[in-house]
Design brief:
Number of helices: 11
Helix content: 25-40%
CATH architecture of the largest domain: 2-Layer Sandwich
Largest sheet: 6 strands, antiparallel
CATH topology of the largest domain: D-amino Acid Aminotransferase, Chain A, domain 1
Distance between the termini: 11 Å
CATH superfamily of the largest domain: ATP-grasp fold, B domain
């Protein structure tokens, strides 16, 4: 980053869109460019850093070769292998930390916090202990261990939970997520993007589908369980234009800077699964009409982000309850900042740029406030 008198390295994949957008933001700020250290170099033990560099961690996604190395399966679209992915990715992030320290560089993102962010059970437990509103979960922190459908059924019965989300403990982008609904008479169904082949292999799909009947749902859960499962109450969401709605709020440097409403006719609002961006002004109006507070909603997100002070940015999934008065945090995502072409919230200080512009600005402020001199 010659313009700012500092050198910056990004551990990511050169073709990753997040890396590209961050580089473009550096250019707009007149801050030069960052050197990209590919994750595959880290995984092969060849990554090198230089004294005085600031090192940023980026998502290992969008590189099929890296996915195969982490997951241990040839087809990167397979669902199975998330526990192996987590173990190898966290180990790689900690390897980066040690190499950065040895080189006399500085890591911008805490590897231990990354390990918590990518474990839904641990992350939920941290948020709950900090008083952040979250859906009830019997697996939170060091809670119940779920080894298969029988255990899911047992915790649902024990805690009177007729509707739950069953999630891979280390999944992302809704991979392996099941919205399970039970009713009187033994009816069981699950809504999910998981596609199950006749031979039992599981694949991620861009089409949300329903599995009906307890035997089908049990087979899915039992196949996912070896990678670890997190179970939480399925909270009824607010609606916008007749569609279920939630929000992704990006928090940078402790402040909520960008937000997008996501709407869907299915329980999963992820945009790549058919969800659509909703009208943020309409959501804010619905909150105000219900007697709620938009400022309170953002404050909930900032409280969640404050649980991870060592990570430079997070994306918070905020769940508005029916009526738009109450909010809970569904997840906190380490790399949840990909909201292209979206400018910042009024009053956030990021009104004229995207999430990467805001991150570069926060980085430059940090450098200035610490008054470090970099070679």
């Amino acid at each position: 980053m010659s313009g700012a008198g500092v050198r910056l390295a990004v551990v990511g994949n050169p073709d990753n869109r997040r890396v590209t957008l961050f580089q473009e933001a550096l250019t707009r700020a007149g801050a030069g460019a960052a050197r990209v250290v590919p994750w595959r170099e880290v995984l092969c033990g060849r990554a090198e850093f230089a004294a005085g560099e600031l090192v940023r961690l980026e998502s290992p996604g969008e590189d099929c070769a890296v996915e195969r190395m982490l997951r241990g399966v040839e087809d990167a679209t397979r669902v199975e292998g998330s526990a192996r992915w987590y173990e190898r990715f966290v180990a790689a992030a900690r390897e980066v930390r040690e190499r950065v320290r040895a080189a006399g560089a500085a890591l911008l993102d805490d590897a231990d916090e990354l390990a918590v962010l990518f474990d839904k059970r641990r992350c939920h437990g941290v948020l709950r202990e900090a008083g952040v509103p979250v859906p009830f979960s019997p697996t939170s922190g060091v809670g119940a261990v779920v080894r298969g459908w029988d255990d899911v059924r047992a915790v649902m019965a024990e805690h009177r939970l007729p509707r739950v989300f069953v999630k891979l403990a280390h999944g992302s982008s809704a991979s392996g997520v099941l919205a399970v609904d039970t009713a009187a008479g033994g009816r069981v169904q699950a809504t999910t993007s998981v596609h199950r082949e006749p031979d039992g292999r599981l694949f991620n799909s861009l089409r949300v589908r329903k599995y009906t009947g307890e035997a089908e749902v049990a087979a899915l859960v039992d196949a996912l369980a070896p990678d670890g499962l997190h179970v939480e109450r399925w909270l009824p969401k607010a609606s916008l234009d007749g569609r279920s709605a939630d929000l992704r709020v990006v928090v940078i440097g402790g402040r909520a800077t960008h937000a997008v409403v996501r709407t869907s006719r299915s329980p999963m609002t992820n945009l790549h699964l058919g969800g659509a961006r909703g009208d943020l002004d309409a959501a804010r109006a619905a909150i105000a009409a219900a007697g709620g507070s938009w400022e309170h909603a953002l404050a909930v997100c900032e409280r969640a982000a404050a649980c991870f002070p060592g990570f430079s940015r997070v994306g918070v999934d905020l769940l508005p309850g029916t009526g738009w008065r109450r909010f809970a945090v569904g997840e906190v995502n380490a790399f949840g900042d990909l909201l292209p072409r979206l400018t910042g919230l009024p009053g956030s200080g990021a009104e004229h740029g995207d999430t990467y512009d805001a991150q570069v600005a926060a980085l430059l402020r940090r450098i200035g406030s610490e008054r470090h001199v970099y070679a």
